Amino acid sequence: xxxxxxxxxxxFVPTIHQQMQQLQFLLCYKGFFSKETTQAxxxxxxxxxxxxxxxxxxxxxxxxxxxxxxxxICLGDPDTESKNDSAIFMLGKDQDHFFIFSGNIxxxxxxxxxxxxxxxxxxxxxxxxxxxxLSQIQEQENDESSxxxxxxxxxxxxxxxxxxxxxxxxxxxxxxxxxxTSISRN
Amino acid sequence: MSMDTDNMQSQVRTNSFxxxxxxxxxxIEEHIxxxxxxxxxxxxxxxxxxxxxxxxxxxxxxxxxxxxxxxxxxxxxICKHQYGAVEKEGSGFQPAIxxxxxxxxxTFVITGNLIANDQIDRLxxxxxxxxxxxxxxxxxxxxxxxxxxxISEVGGAGLGLIxxxxxxxxxxxxxxxxxxNNTSYFSLMxxxxxxKQEN
Lengths: 186, 199
Prior knowledge:
By secondary structure, chain A is of the alpha+beta class.
């Protein structure tokens, strides 16, 4: 059978679809995260979780983690506002987990801080995370780095899994933080 | 031994993040902002539309309306045809994909799904017919189709493509890529210009 020629500008569509399936993604959003888009993303995730027949406790965990990830994106360094359009949120699933990928630009010193703090957070067990969280709340200095650390401790607690992350240097001052947070489906 | 396992795990993780990063780069290159793949039901369609609407909050009202109309038609097409090409329980089932983005200030909507090969000729001639007409021609074809068409098996009267072309004001881009089991991957792209033009 003779088929119409592939329109070159569309050659990427099946490729992206295939990648989405390989990466087990259901939903990707890239751009500016306003209050309204955040709400719409939560709505879309809810719709998707419904169609996956996720239980209430799983839904609640996914929502908590998602809100944490979105907050991390929104509360990024104010200097990154011009680059805010590069932030990304993705929802995916495999047989045993739902997972959330979030990505955003972090500026110089904060990237160094994350490199240092995230491995420490990942070494802690649930009870230790809880204690650290509580002590951080009590002692919290009102600076950006302790706020950020607290947010990641909270995320690790809510997810119940280690935070997987990668930091890719964008330029001398900016680093792209990609993070995978998993939530068990049962 | 434990060190090797750790290294292997770290390598797998790095590969997966590299793949993710290149996927992200691809989204940037193609100016894509929203992607959804999977089963489409009423609730999901509603939330896709709501997200797109929020995304376009600052756009001109008439452009917003056109984009919204085109999106609704594209999503309807997916809903109607998502189980048409292959059985849901069959091994070849592939969920449809929906994408939206902005390139050079124009909004575009892309859909991708499998269709049976015996549908290609019919679909091609339909799109080519729509693409060959100007606004006036499309209006007449729309009226004619409304009067003469019957509701087809999948629930549509074949008005969707005409409506997409009318609302977008640009030719519909499309392609078919061969897939397995007598099916092809059908990609469709509609571009809605940001400049004000009466359609």
